[in-house]
Structures are given as C-alpha cells and as structure tokens.
Design goal:
Blueprint (H helix, E strand, L loop, with lengths): L15 H7 L7 E5 L4 H6 L6 E6 L2 H16 L2 H8 L7 H6 L7 H6 L2 H5 L7 H17 L2 H7 L7 H12 L2 H10 L2 H8 L12 H13 L8 H8 L15 H10 L3 E4 L2 H7 L5 E3 L9 H14 L5 E6 L11 E3 L13 E7 L2
Parallel strand pairs: 1-2, 1-4, 2-3, 4-5
Antiparallel strand pairs: 5-7, 6-7
Helix pairs in contact: 3-15, 8-11, 8-14, 11-13, 16-17
C-alpha cells in the first residue's frame, strides 16, 4: 500500500500579491502566519516587518518553510530556483549540501535525496493531484499548443479572451473531466484530506468549475501562476511571487538580519503563548472547522491581538465571516489568482 504523504502542500495556493497588499505591513508589523508551504510568509518579508512567526499543526510544513528560508538566505537566486525545482537541474543534491546543516536533524531526515532530486515544490500531495490532472487528464481535452495559447498575451481585450474560451476551450470534455476530477470524491482521494471537506455542502466540482471559469475568460489568466501549474503541472512562464527575481533579494535582505520564528501547534495554542501580534495571515484554516469552533477562534483572535491588527483569510467553499461588532471588513478591488477560492476576507480590528 502506498505510504501516506506527510507533505500536504509544497506550494501556497493563496494569492500572495493580494495578501501582501491587504495586510498593510510596515516596520512595526508583527506577523503571525500559517506556514503551509512557506511561500506567502516569505513573500511578506519583502515588506520589512518587525517580526514573523510561522505556525502549523503539520511539522512537515514547518520543515519545508525552514528549507525555503535557508535556501533564500544562503543561495543565489538561480541556485534557489534549481534546488526548489523551478528550473531543471542535475545537481540538486550538491546545492542542498550547502544549506543542509542549517536545518534541524528531523528536517534533514525528511528531505531524502529522492525528494530533493525530484524538486521539492513538486512533492506535496496537492501538487501531485494537479500534476495528475495536467499530465493525464488535460491531454485528453486539449493539445499542448492550445494549453499554451491560453497563456499567450497577444490578445488585449477581455472580450477576445472570452471568445477564445467559449469557442476553443470550453468543450464538453473540458466540462466533464474538470467537474469529475475536482469532485468531492476525487479531490478527497488524491488532493486534500477527506476530513477537510466535511463542512462543504453541495456539488464541489460544479462550484469550482464556475469559479475557474471567471479566471479563464479574463486577461489575468496570462500571469496566473496557479492556473498555469494546474494545467501544465509546472511553473513555466510564471513563478510564485516569493521566487521572482525582483522579490527574492528583498526577502534575502530581511533574512540577513532577522530570523523567522516557528510554532508547531494550532492557532489557539499559538495565540495563548504569543499574544499581541498585529498582522495575521490565516490561510483558509476556518474552512475545516465547525461554525461554533470558528466563532470561538474569532473571539480569541480579537482578545489576543493588538489594537491595530489586520486579519486576512480565504474561503474555498464554506462561508466563514468575522462578526461586524469586533471586526471591520475591508473590501478589495484587487484580482485574486486563487481561482478556486470563493471569497477573500480582510478585516481590521474594531475599536
């Protein structure tokens, strides 16, 4: 029997550009951030915060974040891209040796030669799910040239993108295979943990299809790195923000004089032990909670956070909103590359 993959995500699948803008980070910001794969927490360092604390209930995700932290701190941009798996490389182990002593013994044990050689950004369970779709399903729907056409930038008007989608892309095979592959059953078996879908109601495949369609008919799809990975199984033309050439040195500079702090545990434990943070990247953790548990977490966030706090999180398919008595919602007109998310939430703490 195939061993369960302890690495659930090797990339972050929430829009780092939107997050970075919404959290309003400055040099007095103390950020508490869900680690996940580390990408978005690292991206926030480009804004020069005072402090960064990454937490996760899955220690494997913390090790991955630490690996990326040390790789950015000690390697050149090209070496980083090669080690992570963004660029092809035949000597990843040699690059990894340069930083492996900076990691904990547990992390070094986890990052086996096989995981490193195959490119760590492709090793998460969720990434394997996308790769299965890109490599095994998409070729039955569209050829490689048509997939590449989807990301070409020679068309300027949204109307033209919409025409391409409806005339060339939105075939019966696309609709059928997409809805089946992103159904509750298939996603629970190959992509996410089944228990993380327990709060979701309705037809999962149809809902994700409708959300994806909005992106596919927009010019924003050209630079959407998440959409590109979903359809190609790799980051081809578009890298996540933290890995981009312009952002990388900003993160490196912060790491030269600062270090990320880590917490292995849940949000409640972290808040109780580390109160008075004022910026919160909460990923989509509320998606997995019963409504009553979510409300308790919101109350604790209000109680333990500093007075000038800002909170950001996403809803995939389960509606979860902070109460208006304690939190003031901030609307955003920015686009969201996370094409499968239903809603982005951004709040400031009410006075």
């Amino acid at each position: 029997m195939k061993k369960n993959n302890p690495l659930k995500y090797s990339n972050c699948w929430e829009d780092a550009w939107l997050l970075s803008k919404s959290l309003q980070i400055n040099n007095n910001s103390k950020i508490m951030s869900i680690a996940s794969a580390g990408d978005n927490s690292l991206m926030l360092l480009a804004r020069k915060p005072k402090e960064m604390l990454c937490l996760d209930m899955n220690e494997t995700q913390i090790w991955l974040t630490q690996l990326k932290e040390q790789a950015i701190k000690h390697l050149s941009h090209e070496e980083f891209l090669q080690l992570m798996g963004f660029l092809p490389c035949d000597y990843r182990l040699e690059i990894y040796i340069k930083i492996h002593e900076e990691l904990s013994e547990e992390a070094r044990t986890f990052f086996t030669p096989e995981r490193i050689e195959n490119g760590i950004i492709h090793q998460g369970k969720f990434e394997k799910y996308f790769q299965l779709f890109a490599k095994k399903i998409v070729p039955w729907i569209h050829n490689k040239n048509r997939v590449n056409d989807l990301f070409e930038g020679h068309i300027l008007e949204d109307e033209a993108y919409e025409h391409f989608y409806h005339s060339e892309w939105n075939t019966w095979r696309w609709r059928l295979f997409f809805k089946v592959f992103f159904s509750r059953y298939v996603m629970g078996k190959f992509g996410r943990e089944p228990e993380k879908l327990k709060e979701v109601k309705g037809n999962v495949g149809k809902r994700i299809f409708a959300m994806a369609e909005k992106h596919l008919i927009s010019h924003n799809r050209i630079s959407n790195y998440m959409l590109e990975y979903t359809l190609k199984g790799e980051f081809d033309k578009n890298f996540p923000p933290y890995a981009q050439e312009a952002i990388f040195p900003m993160i490196k500079k912060w790491l030269q004089t600062n270090s990320i702090k880590y917490f292995h545990g849940d949000l409640e434990q972290c808040l109780n032990q580390h109160p008075d943070f004022n910026r919160f990247n909460l990923s989509n953790i509320f998606e997995y909670m019963h409504k009553e548990d979510f409300e308790d977490q919101a109350k604790l966030l209000y109680k333990k956070s500093a007075s000038d706090s800002v909170f950001s999180y996403w809803n995939l398919m389960v509606p979860r909103a902070f109460d208006s008595q304690h939190f003031q919602r901030q609307e955003s007109d920015s686009r969201d590359f996370g094409f499968f998310y239903q809603e982005f939430h951004n709040y400031i703490k009410a006075k």
